Amino acid sequence: MPTVGLPCCLQTSGLRNNNELQSVNHPKGLRPNSMKNQGTGKLQGKVAVITGGTTGIGLAAAKLFVKEGAYVFITGRRQKELDEAEKAIGGSVTGVQGDVTKLADLDRLYETVKARARIDVLFANAGVAEFAPLEGVTEQHFDKYSASM
After folding, report:
1. Is this prediction's pTM over 0.85?
2. End-to-end CA distance of the chain, in Å?
3. In what order do the strands lie in the sheet with 47-51?
4. Lesser CB count within 10 Å: N end or C end of the chain?
5. What is 28-146's CATH number?
6. How far is it, in rounded angstroms, from Cα 83 to Cα 89?
């Protein structure tokens, strides 16, 4: 399985040891269970939202974020793949079905996360692609695919 490195901006901010992490206020009970038993991970006690978290880089990132101590919300358009991704990730994850090109789905994602936590990390990973020769790209292609950016 490929590994994904964490950019330096995703590292925890200035906490020196596990005792300091234990004293951090965690929102509405979303303190990862692993915090009690492990050393400090790069994302210990953080909450991440990963769009497009059901396959590929998004799924690999979600697994790594959880391993590093984060609680993760993932999104995906298809419920079956979302359920499979949640199972593959294990604990400390909530799947939210939705399409990032639809404002109502983004509002529902925000409300779901807001009801339970704050967002420390946002990984805007969702996207779609269709390959076509340059001369075959139409305005409709551009409109369709730029909506997910």
Report:
1. no
2. 27
3. 93-97, 71-76, 47-51, 121-124
4. N
5. 3.40.50.720
6. 10
H or E, element range at 106: helix 103-116
Q: What is the pLDDT of residue 9?
A: 33
Furthest-apart CA pair in the chain: how many Å? 60
> Where do the domains of the chain lie?
28-146
Which residues make Cβ contacts (< 8 Å) with residue 47, sequence separation at least 6?
27, 30, 70, 71, 72, 73, 113, 117, 118, 119, 120, 121
Res. 149: pLDDT tops 90:
no
